[in-house]
Amino acid sequence: ALERTFSIIKPDATRRNLTGAIVKKFEDAGLRVVAQKRIHLTKAQAGEFYKVHAERPFYDELCEFMASAPIVAQVLEGENAIAKNREVMGATNPADAEAGTIRAEFAESVGENSVHGSDAPETAAVEIAYFFSGLELVG
Ligand code: CMP
What we know:
Elements: E1 2-9, H1 11-15, H2 19-28, E2 32-39, H3 43-49, H4 59-66, E3 71-79, H5 81-89, H6 102-106, E4 115-117, H7 121-131
Antiparallel strand pairs: 1-3, 1-4, 2-3
The chain binds adenosine-3',5'-cyclic-monophosphate.
C-alpha cells in the first residue's frame, strides 16, 4: 500500500554534510520526499520525541546528541514506505547493517547512526504530527 513514514537525518550526518547523499539513497529506493525541514531541536524537544525510550540507560545521551546540531526532519512516501525506509537505513547498530545501507556507509556508532525511521504505521502518524502540519505535506 502507499504509505508515509517519518525520517530524521541526524546531527552526525548533517555535521558531515551528508544530507544530499542520504536523500539520494531514499529517492533511489523509490521513496519520495513529501515534506522536509532543517531544524535545531532543543534537548527538551528531543526528549519529548524519544519519550518511549525515557527509561533506557542511553536516553540522556540520545537527547543531548539529537540537540547537538541541526537535523533534517522528513516525510517519505511510497509503496510500503515504512519497511522500505527501514531496509535502506539498515540495522540500528552500523556493525550489523548490511553493505550498501545508509548506516553501513555513514553511521558512526549505535547512538550516532545518521538516520531515524518510524517502526510502524501508528508511530509514523504520531511522529509526522509532532513535526509537520497537514499543510506541509505535499505529495
Ligand atoms: P532511533 O531509530 O532513532 O531510535 C532510538 C535511538 O536510540 C536509536 O535510533 C539509536 O540511535 C539510539 N540507541 C539505541 N541503542 C543505543 C545505545 N545502546 N546507546 C546509545 N544510543 C542508542
